[in-house]
Write a structure and sequence with these properties.
This protein is α/β, with parallel strands linked by helices. Helix content is 47%, strand content 12%.
C-alpha cells in the first residue's frame, strides 16, 4: 500500500453534513442577532475550521462574547435541534473497511469539537474503524499542522508514511504545512480548483476511486 497511515477529514469527506452545518450556523447567528444574515456560500466556505475561527471569519469584528454565544448556539442547533440527516457519502463504509482489512491505520483530523464528534460518530457506525481521532478544540485549528503532528507522534509513523484526505483547502493546507502528502475529494465543500492549488497527489471524484488508488500496488 502507498501509505500505512491514512488520516481523514470528517465533514464533507466522510459524512455529508453540509446542510446541517449551514442551517445550524445560520440559526445560531440569527438567534444572537447578527446581521446581515449568513449566506449558504459563506458558511460553506468555513467548513473545516474550528468553530471560533469559523465564526470570526463569518462575523467580522465580533467580540469574544459574541463568538462564544454563537458557538454555544451552533452546538445546540447541530446536536439538539436539527433533524437533517447526515449520511455517509457513497462507498465510505465499505471503503474504510477495505483499507482497514488491508492493514492501514486510520485516523480522523477534524474541525469538529470532541463533544460533537463523539456524538455523531456512533450515528454513522464508523467508530471502530479509527485507531485515533483528533478534534479542533484539543489542538490548533486547521490549517495549522499541529493536529497532524500530534497524530504522527501518538502513532509513531513518519510523515512520509502518512497521507491526509480532505475536501477543503484547510485540510490540504494543514497537510502541506506538515510536509505530508495530501489527497483531495471533489464532492465536498470546496471547488476542485481551490484544492488543486495545494498540489494533491491524487484527486478523487468518488470515495471508491480514492480507496482503489490507495490500495493499488
Amino acid at each position: 500500500m502507498k501509505y500505512p497511515f491514512v488520516i481523514f477529514d470528517w465533514d464533507g469527506t466522510l459524512v455529508d453534513s453540509e446542510a446541517r452545518i449551514i442551517t445550524s450556523m445560520q440559526a445560531a447567528a440569527k438567534d444572537y442577532g447578527w446581521e446581515p444574515a449568513l449566506t449558504d456560500e459563506a458558511v460553506r466556505n468555513i467548513i473545516g475550521l474550528a468553530l471560533p475561527e469559523a465564526i470570526r471569519h463569518l462575523c467580522q469584528g465580533i467580540d469574544d462574547d459574541g463568538v462564544e454565544a454563537i458557538r454555544n448556539g451552533y452546538t445546540h442547533q447541530f446536536l439538539e435541534q436539527s433533524n437533517l440527516d447526515m449520511p455517509l457519502f457513497n462507498g465510505v463504509g465499505d471503503g474504510l473497511q477495505r483499507l482497514k482489512e488491508a492493514g492501514c491505520v486510520l485516523a480522523v483530523a477534524t474541525g469538529k469539537s470532541r463533544r460533537g464528534l463523539d456524538r455523531v460518530m456512533p450515528e454513522v457506525g464508523l467508530g471502530a474503524l479509527f485507531a485515533h481521532t483528533r478534534c479542533a478544540d484539543e489542538t490548533l485549528s486547521k490549517p495549522d499542522p499541529l493536529m497532524l503532528r500530534e497524530l504522527l507522534d501518538v502513532t509513531g509513523f513518519d510523515v512520509r508514511q502518512a497521507v491526509m484526505v480532505g475536501d477543503t483547502e484547510y485540510d490540504l493546507g494543514m497537510a502541506k504545512n506538515a510536509g505530508m502528502d495530501r489527497l483531495a475529494v471533489t464532492y465536498g465543500a470546496h471547488h476542485p480548483d481551490r484544492l488543486q492549488a495545494y498540489q494533491p497527489v491524487f484527486v478523487a471524484d468518488r470515495f471508491e476511486q480514492l480507496v482503489d488508488w490507495l490500495l493499488r500496488d
